[in-house]
Automatic annotation (TrEMBL):
The keyword Transmembrane does not apply. Binds 1 divalent metal cation per subunit; can use either Mg(2+) or Mn(2+). This is Probable inosine/xanthosine triphosphatase. It catalyses: XTP + H2O = XDP + phosphate + H(+); ITP + H2O = IDP + phosphate + H(+). Its cofactor is Mg(2+); Mn(2+). Phosphatase that hydrolyzes non-canonical purine nucleotides such as XTP and ITP to their respective diphosphate derivatives. Probably excludes non-canonical purines from DNA/RNA precursor pool, thus preventing their incorporation into DNA/RNA and avoiding chromosomal lesions. Belongs to the YjjX NTPase family.
Amino acid sequence: MKVAIGTHNRAKVKAVQNVVNTYFDDIEFLEVDVPSNVSSQPFSDEETRQGAINRALNTLEATGAELNFGLEGGVREIDGIMYCCNWGALALKNGQVLTAAGAQFMLPEEIAKKLRAGKELGPIMDEYTNEKDTRHHKGAIGVLTANLVDRKEMFEHIVTLLIGQYFFLKKEK
């Protein structure tokens, strides 16, 4: 079975591989760099969800794989508090799209101010931690949860929700 992932981000790719390998055998993984067709820093659940859907559909178009994953991280504001939000989409070969959301957690005000000023979370976290490519490893969630949950684990939960919906859909047919 061909499974395509609409990114080269190591945390997202590993999340898909870990979950898919748990439930399927004989998998060929394809990684493709596809656009999200939303802003580089999505600023709402709606925009972040749409980015995941767009990545999944663009991945399907690029590969024609049976399962096509799009994963997107963004931010949203509630009552003046900035939260990180995360969405995933699974586009099936027939064009049907399943979606799921994951963990949301507060961002410190000093990070929120930089986001409101137009900066992207990944580079902000690199600056905040004095590290490089945090988005490919622990991510903001790893930093802000004292490494109790990393970005790969957060996306594994979303991918598991998507695979579960896929199994339910197949069972219903």
